[in-house]
What we know:
Strand content: 15-25%
Shape: globular
Pfam family, one: AA_kinase
Number of helices: 13
Family: Belongs to the aspartokinase family.
Number of strands: 20
EC number: 2.7.2.4
GO molecular function: aspartate kinase activity; ATP binding
Protein name: aspartate kinase
Helix content: 25-40%
Structural class: alpha/beta
Bound molecules: aspartic acid, magnesium ion
Amino acid sequence: MLSWVDFAVVSLIVQKFGGSSLADADSVKRVARRIVATKAEGHQVVVVVSAMGDTTDELLDLAEQVSPKPPARELDMLLTSGERISMALLAMAISDLGEDARSYTGSQAGLITDSAHGAARIIDVTPGRIAEALNEGAIPIVAGFQGVAQDTKDITTLGRGGSDTTAVALAAALEASVCEIYTDVDGVFSADPRVVPAARKLEFVTYEEMLELAAVGAKVLHLRCVEYARRFDLPIHVRSSFSQREGTYVLSPEAIETAIAEGRAMEQPIISGVAADVNDAKVTVVGVPDEPGRAAAIFRALADAGINVDMIVQNVSAASTGRTDVTFTCPQGSAAKATDALESGSGAIGFESLVIDDQIAKVSLVGAGMRSHPGVSATFFAALAEASINVEMISTSEIRISVVTRVDDAKRAVQALHTAFGLDADGEAVVYGGTGR
Ligand code: ASP
Ligand code: MG
């Protein structure tokens, strides 16, 4: 099979290694060998690293022990040290293999961000020093997850899992042919292999499908990195650092169509995956007067409190009372804030009571083929019915169906849907341990 990506004679590849691939000294040496092997094949390589193992979590714990509410600037300064440990060690290991490797902080690599500490957005990438190192035949190693704020000049972080975004941003700026994201699983799967042992590795997914999968709990790639890749039409190759196997390519629909037309890929499946997210809570606003302006008051109060609302359902109102119930989901971590916000706005809303339920899961089916294939919903709900799983809420996009179920039913729901849509593979997926970050 030809490769998904058209490699020119000398092509530039950005390789990102996650924390599970850099857990200890031996892993660092193993990754170093892999990088040097890629260079030996004739490619130019730029490397982006995450912090080793659980370093970021350990640094967060440490900060918490020192201060209950650390200043955001200092927390960012602390957290970026994790990636700096990785980059320097990896550069040392590569030097030992006889190659010139040079490590750079995000700031040195030209990752310019806004000043939103803890969740900074990349606003410019000026990788002059990286290009220079490449021209001199060196292998640049860049600390992921960090940048420097354009206005304050302070060091920032991009949010948890942000090294993926660093890698894609650098790859786009350097016009790399592909951004390889190395992790501890073989690629993007049709379901979490820890939940569905028969999950299959996907050969490719579109950016859009990957965005939907990432948003519904498939924790393979940082959401923003996929948005970024889509914007620049940059191929991402998610693969394991523990095997040589081809992983999953994340591409534009046009690139996939071309590959199919040229016989490099089989026909695109209707459904690409099933995922469950157990981190949401369901809030029901009971007894809301059924008249114009009440829903507006509810969601204005939530928006003002900075709550991200996902699904929304309004019941048919009871004719006798003229009142109705409005139910929405939001991250569990914001449920308390949501009820506070609603209670303080209760005058304008006029509800009777609030019910919070955090024992829920959102189970989602994603597939670009849904657009053109009727019957997907019918199969979806039949599978859940056969498994005796009650559906509490429903929402859809053009390429996704999501339902809220009891959290205890989530695993069975994912398994039932995976089987019903013919996604079960023959062999079992390989999971190499680690945290998946
Ligand atoms: N080390 C950071 C984290 O654990 C960034 C990353 O892994 O991408 O979130
Ligand atoms: Mg990490």
